[in-house]
Amino acid sequence: MLQEIFLLVYKNLREVDPSLSFSSWIYRITHNYVRSHFRMTQARPQTVDLAPAIIESISSDLDIATSVDQSILKEKIRAALYAIDEKYRSVLILKFLEQKDYEEISDILKKPSGTIGTLIHRAKKKLKEELQQENLV
Amino acid sequence: MKHSLQNTVLERIKQEDISPKPKWEFLVKEYLVWASAGFLVVLGGVSIATAISIVVMGDWDILEFLGHTPLSYTLVSLPYAWIVSLLGFMFLADYNIRHTKTGYKFSLLKLMAGIVFSSVFLGILLCSIGVGLAVDRVMTQHVPLYTQVGNRRAINLMHPEFGALVGKVIDQHEDGWTVKDLRRTEWIVIVDEADILGDPSSLVGMPVRILGEREDTQQFVFEAFEIRALEHTRQQSLKERHPVNERVRQRMKHRTPQRNPVQNIAQ
């Protein structure tokens, strides 16, 4: 898949918009390719690895109980992340895993930055609801 | 692994002779999307211009004789087909702009406000130079069912029992005019005491609005008080349109008493 993405980037190299950062552009191509690939194959994407720093970032943002064991917490957050809608998962991954700001997420997902703010707010709420079912919040 | 991926990608580029798409391809695509969005805004403007023309062209000066209040007449005469078309063009313009390189940056509200403002501005401009009337005329002449879904003026006006008749002038002779109505019925119209707006000979073959009185409910004979072209020619713009004059109005009021159209519908 990575090969295909690199080839796609190469083919579309002259499409690069100088007003966007190059990384946002590559993210966008990758995001679209991966999404359409998994749609076509009807498969679920592989789960992402949640580093401790990310777990901490999500935990503090959502007021998750810190007393829970890190490995259990990691598993629960991962499960909750994959239980919510794909559009919410994408913004949360870009925000917490990729540490992108609103403008960059807006450029990657091709949505107005105001919409990104709303999406992140709703995504956090959805994630929190999932985690509440596990008594983590 | 990193090295291997790099080599594989480079090898594939060589083997499959892959090269970056030329810049002009992206530019043409971008310009086409913008151009189609612009075209849709223009179509929205044309819809507005035509809708305004249809509303202004309405028979507001004789509502009392047609048994309508301004509100009820507005409801029956609004050009719904044009309003639906306008909404469709706006939606498609929004969709196209969203698919340009920078379109995603605009919020729905801002983008729609921009499209609505542009369409309305263009619509008023096109209406003022007569485009709305011209489009309505062409559609009336060439599009089947247009008089039922696009511009219902003739249908709303066609009430001979209440003093209004619509039809095309087929012939003008000493005994009167022959007028064919929407149902292809031929009427003899007596014009002896009628106010005829414009040159009578120019009305042959034209759809006309006739105010007057039906002579006999069993016969298709109609005494005209006023005759005017139903359509507006370029020479007679919307601004120059005159309401029915006081003399005709008085004659309409003193016709043989008829049932109110609203009562008629209720019965």
Could you explain how this protein is built, in words?
The complex is a heterodimer of chains A (137) and B (267). By secondary structure, chain A is mostly helical. Chain A is built from seven helices and no strands. Chain A has helices spanning 2-11, 22-41, 52-62, 70-83, 86-97, 102-109, 113-133. The longest helix of chain A is centred in the last third of the chain and has 21 residues, at 113-133. Chain A is globular and about 50 Å long. Chain B has eleven helices and six strands. Chain B has helices at residues 2-15, 23-57, 63-66, 70-77, 80-98, 108-128, 131-142, 146-149, 153-157, 246-253, 261-266; strands at residues 164-173, 176-181, 186-190, 195-196, 207-214, 221-229. The A-B interface holds A 2-3, 6-7, 10-15, 17, 19, 106, 110-115 and B 5, 8-9, 12-13, 18-23, 26, 101-102, 104-108.
Distance between the termini of chain B: 87 Å
Main sheet of chain B?
Answer: 5 strands, mixed, barrel
Number of helices of chain A: 7
- The N- and C-terminal alpha carbons of chain A lie at a distance of 37 Å
Question: What's the overall geometry of chain B?
Answer: elongated
Query: Whole-number radius of gyration of chain A?
Result: 16 Å
Average pLDDT, all residues of chain A: 82
Return the string of H and E elements of chain A. HHHHHHH
Overall structural class of chain B, as computed from helix and strand content, comes to alpha/beta
* Quaternary structure annotation: heterodimer
Helical content of chain B (DSSP H or I, runs of 4+):
40-55%
